[in-house]
Automatic annotation (TrEMBL):
This is Imidazolonepropionase. Gene3D superfamilies: Metal-dependent hydrolases, Urease, subunit C, domain 1. Residues 84-428 form the Amidohydrolase-related domain. Keywords: Signal. SUPFAM superfamilies: Composite domain of metallo-dependent hydrolases, Metallo-dependent hydrolases. It comes from the Bacteria. PANTHER family: ALPHA-D-RIBOSE 1-METHYLPHOSPHONATE 5-TRIPHOSPHATE DIPHOSPHATASE (PTHR43135). GO terms for molecular function: hydrolase activity, acting on carbon-nitrogen (but not peptide) bonds. It holds the Pfam family Amidohydro_1. Residues 1-24 form the signal peptide. The keyword Signal applies.
Length: 432
């Protein structure tokens, strides 16, 4: 008797701490139905704003879209007023594990648990700013801690965008992000995972996929410079090495995105069949032809360059960044004329999370129309993130990732900076 009593009380205490849902028999609940109404709605594909706009949401999906929809009995009704309903924004190049300040020192001074908590807070800032889907392009030394953040978001434990994550980026010894500038005897770790040849690339990709990476990020070029108006950035992997990485990623249902700024690295990446070339300052005519033919997306990341130019570490760094910005702006116009497909990615992290709508603005400032920037960001972005026909447009059957912005984004792309309403997966995360 005596021995049974404590065991019983333990069971009782445990039961009392269980959430209510776990204590009762499962009940099938009808999905929540909500009708959203606003003065306007954006048709991303057509590049048009229609008035008024309504979206019917059932559970996590969009059920219907139109001007005046019948309101189902028992549904909730949200009148958002003088705003434009549009799909949640997509950022195809983020770093949840970075925050402003000395980027390299952050990865040296902060533990991975601390960085993971900061990443959770970054995910919250991004989604509340209207970014409902992101491709995180490397934790910069926090290995696969991004998998934990992605899973916590997916389990509803913390707010954040739909995430595609890539663990550490992959680089060569002495290459990009390999603690260059530190005394090697201090053994400051690389922010990337090392792979020095084809076999090591395959092996690291297998480890990262085991660790939960959705996407593979490879540094294809190293330190950039412009000298006498000519851009230089040494390549890190040959076309054959990158092709082996792409084949291995594909074998397990994944894809490769490269950090690649200049030639011939960009050509090697395009020939190898990567999914995206990020930064892409310099693209040769042959690289652009391949990108068009194979629908490889360029992701310009103008916002990070602007931030670095505005917050330089030294006068020399400021001059270098400004030179790169004007070089890239001129090349971007050539890329637009050549019909290169684009997605929108900001490289947020080194600059504050939640402010990356600036990337959409900078693409317009550099010569793309707002309608084309929105198509690139949302329709191409959805393809690049492997959620084509699921996100990026307001259509029946798509996920209910919906935001509202004041004004008309086709007239002023700046309105993306000020979402007043954010819904992800049918759940309202923000309503001002
Ligand atoms: Zn990046």
């Amino acid at each position: 008797m005596i021995s049974i009593l404590p065991r019983c009380s333990l069971v009782l205490v445990f039961a009392a701490t269980l959430p209510l849902a776990a204590q009762t028999a499962p009940v099938t609940q009808a999905p929540k139905i909500t009708l959203l109404h606003a003065a306007r709605i954006l048709d991303v594909q057509a590049g048009r704003v229609l008035s008024p706009g309504e979206v019917l949401v059932e559970g996590e999906r969009i059920k219907a879209v139109g001007g005046h929809l019948p309101r189902p009995e028992g549904s909730a009704f949200i009148d958002l007023g003088d705003v434009t309903l549009m799909p949640g924004l997509i950022d195809a190049h983020t770093h949840l594990f970075l925050h402003p300040g000395a980027e390299d020192l952050q990865t040296v001074q902060e533990s991975v648990p601390e960085r993971t908590l900061l990443a959770a807070s970054a995910a919250r800032a991004d989604v509340l700013a209207g970014f409902t889907a992101e491709r995180d392009m490397g934790t910069e030394g926090a290995k696969c801690a991004d998998v934990a953040v992605r899973n916590a978001i997916n389990h509803g434990l913390i707010p954040g965008p739909r995430m595609l994550v890539s663990c550490n980026a992959i680089s060569i010894v002495g290459g990009h992000e390999d603690a260059i500038g530190y005394n090697p005897d201090q053994h400051v770790l690389s922010n990337a995972d090392y792979a020095n040849n084809r076999d090591e690339l395959v092996s690291v990709i297998r480890e990262q996929r085991k660790g939960g990476a959705d996407f593979i990020k490879i540094y294809e070029t190293g330190r950039d410079g412009v000298k006498d108006g000519v851009f230089h950035s040494p390549y890190q992997y040959t076309e054959q090495e990158l092709a082996a990485a792409v084949t291995e990623a594909r074998r397990t249902g994944s894809r490769v995105g490269v950090h690649s700024t200049g030639e011939p690295g960009n050509l090697y990446a395009a020939e190898a069949g990567v999914a995206s070339i990020d930064h892409a300052y310099q693209l040769s005519p042959e690289t652009m032809r391949l990108m068009r033919e194979r629908q490889i997306f360029a992701v310009p990341t103008f916002a990070i360059s602007e931030y670095f130019a505005q917050h330089p570490a030294s006068p020399a760094a400021e001059a270098r960044e400004k030179q790169l910005i004007s070089y890239h702006a001129a090349e971007f116009k050539k890329q637009l004329a050549a019909g290169v497909p684009f997605a929108v990615g900001s490289d947020v992290g080194p600059f504050p999370h939640g402010t990356q709508a600036r990337e959409y603005e900078l693409m317009v400032e550099n010569g793309m129309s707002p309608a084309d920037v929105l198509r690139s960001g949302l329709i191409n972005g959805a393809k690049l993130l492997d959620w084509a026909d699921e996100i990026g447009q307001l259509k029946a059957g798509y996920y209910a990732d919906i935001i509202a912005v004041p004004g008309n984004p086709l007239e002023s792309i700046k309105v993306l900076e000020h979402p007043t309403f954010v819904m992800k997966n049918g759940e309202v995360l923000r309503k001002d």
